[in-house]
Every structure is written in structure tokens, then in C-alpha cells.
Amino acid sequence: MSNRKAFAELHLPPAAQAQGTLRLPGSKSISNRALLLAALADDETQLDALLNADDVRYMREALTQLGVRLDALGENNWRVHGCNGRFPNLKADLFLGNAGTAVRPLTAVLSVLGGDYRIHGVARMHERPIGDLVEALRALHCRIDYQEKPGFPPLHISPRDTDTPFPKTVAIRGDVSSQFLSALLMALPLIGDDGATYTEVVLTTPLISRPYVKITTHLMARFGVSVEEPDSQRFRVPRGARYRSPGVLKVESDASSASYFLAAGVLGGGPVRVTGVGRHSIQGDVAFADVLHAQGAKMTYGDDFIEAQRGTSFKGGEIDCLTIPDAAMTLAITALAAQTPTTLVNIGSWRVKETDRIHAMATELAKLGARVESGDDWLRIHPAAALRHAEIDTYDDHRMAMCFSLVSLLRTAVTIRDPDCVAKTFPEYFEAFERLLA
Questions:
Q1: How far is CA 7 from CA 11, 77, 418, in A?
Q2: Topology of domain 9-25+252-437, CATH
């Protein structure tokens, strides 16, 4: 970034147009799930196009500490030597940064397998709730202790009493984070048959972000373990199942990251095409493209690409974001160019992400001169005839930085503070964004 300021700010001047084609990095959600399942599998697995970013690096380092061998095969390709359902190292201190996709599943898997483990991260990770997952694991007679504030990391995991059988049913909430359910599902096959053929997971509240759970069950099936869903509130996971390597698995490009470039195609005229993710993606955030289309953008879909460009008009309205919570953040910026106010609903999960995203988004939009209203699980943004330059705080949240870069396509200069926070999932984001503006 040639125009990066010495005091960690990036100034983006007003841009007239965005157009071009780019291949996105791998999906964070798929990368970390695939790494963990490959580590637990019975043989070697080659993972191609794995995301090269902080959250995935934390998972790789944790697996290495647990005794898993990982071989780099060139750019973003890795060979994982599976441990056949049991990690060699039964004691480890695992620092996982702010990577929820590492903290939650490792907590579940290590608790079920047993051992002496500490799981911790950065200060914000210790503010992100994990109590519902811990309570579900304790109901399975796993031994987990909070080391500081109850309900939050850091955690200490101890070996469970092997004379106590695992219950046949476990309950968990579904309305705080879908990662809790995903973590539990990935861990449950590691339970021996114990006189039962499966463990039934019962949701006590409606499930948010269901497409992310679909990613989990899809990948589990790729590794040989099929999860049954008798209805929307129950999941049946086979006991004594063994994860089996699929041989080679290619990671899709990240659909959440695609949202910024598809929005750039709409705000900047386009066309902008993203490759590596298409109409048959297993990622729920591809539905973001359908939302843009419903608002009036011109969208084109292929098996391995999505393309966006400006349509004749762009509408606001109420948008239910329950299934696209990450990509929905981008809609708060495109709302500034809509013809009518845009209300994003069912975004309560934003409050327990890398930062309180409802508060952060409302605060930073107001700096630009936008009129914004918010509630516990909604955000309303009014169209802006004119915006003013602002220095945007990013709250160490990669998605805040990437979202607000789009303001430059609204004929307004914007300064992004701490732009390096994008390293969490997309280290080269600003270089890629600037190429579209060239």
C-alpha cells in the first residue's frame, strides 16, 4: 500500500468507477473446519486454496501444538497428516487470537477427547461468549473451567471421567452463535458407541445463521460422517464414527469477502466479477448477491463466478439478515446509495462478533454525516445526498475496515484507521480493492 500513512491510516480518495475481475482468497469458515476435520481423519488430506490469514494461522499453529503434522505444498496448499481421532499431545496451551472459528470447535473437540488444555486469545476473544457451548459440553460430563469471567474464555479443559457414559441427548441454544452448534456437531462423532448409535442434539431456541451449520454438516459428510436432521430443531450425530480423508479438498473462495467487491460493482458501475465462488457454493453468504439483485443491481451467475454492476435503480426496504450476518454489514454501506431507507433486521449476533458491530457501524456512519437509527437487533440507514470525509475507527474488526473502503465509491474521501486489521481474513484486501479502481 504505497499511500499508507506512517501512523497506520489509509486514505482513500473519491473513486469514479470500479470494474475488473479478481479471484478471492479461500473461505475462513471452510478453511478452519477442513483443517480440524483433516487433522482428526484417518489418513493424509491435501487442502488446496486454504485461506492464508491470521485466523487460519492460529488453527494451524494449534494443531501443530497438538501433535498434528502439516506440510506446506506451495502457495496456500497443505497436506494434513490425520491423527485418526486422537491428538498425540494431551497437554497444550493454545493461544487463538480472536479466531472464533478456532476457539469454539477446538473447545468442543478437546473437551470430548479429554486432556489438559488451556484455550485463550486476545482481550476481545475473552469478551465473546462461549457459555452456551460450555454448558452443553458439561452436560456431556466434560470438565471445563472458566479461568476468569464465567461464560467467557480463557478456559481450562481437564480429562473427563471415563467411567461416566456420555448422555444420549444434549441441548444447546441456537440464537447466540451458530458456531456453538457447529463445534458440538464436529466433536460428537469422536464419542464411542457407548451402547448408543447416535447422539441427538436438541436446539432450545431457533437457530441463527443456519447456512454456516450447513457448511459444517456438508464438510463432515465429505469426511465420511453424515448428520441427520429429523427436523429444524434436532440433529443426530453417529457415535463411534471415524472421519475418513477425502484425499483432496479444494477450499471455495470466501463468499463473505465477495460482498465488498460485488457492492463495489454496484456502487462503482462495474462490472466487477469475483471468481472461485458461484451459484452452487456451500456458503450461505452467496445469498448476498440475491439481495443486491432484489434491490435493483444487475447480477450474473456462473458455476465459478458472480458478477455485479449498477442497475437502473437501487431500492432500500427491510432486509432480513438472519442467514447472512457477515455479508449483511456491507448492506449498511450500499444503503447510503439507495432510493429509500434500508432497515437491516435480525442482526443481533453482530453484538458478539469481533466488536459490537451494531454500535460500531452506527457510530462510524454518523461520522460521515449519515442518518442512522439502531436497536437491539436492527439498524436503519437513510440515503445520503452528501457525505463528508471522516476518519473511520475499525475496532480491530476486519469487516469494519473492508466495508468502509466502499465509501470512496460514493464520491467521498475516507480514511481507514488501522487498515492492517484486515489480516484476520484478507491481508491483501486493500491492494485488491485498489486494483478495481485503477
A1: 11, 34, 9
A2: UDP-n-acetylglucosamine1-carboxyvinyl-transferase; Chain (3.65.10)
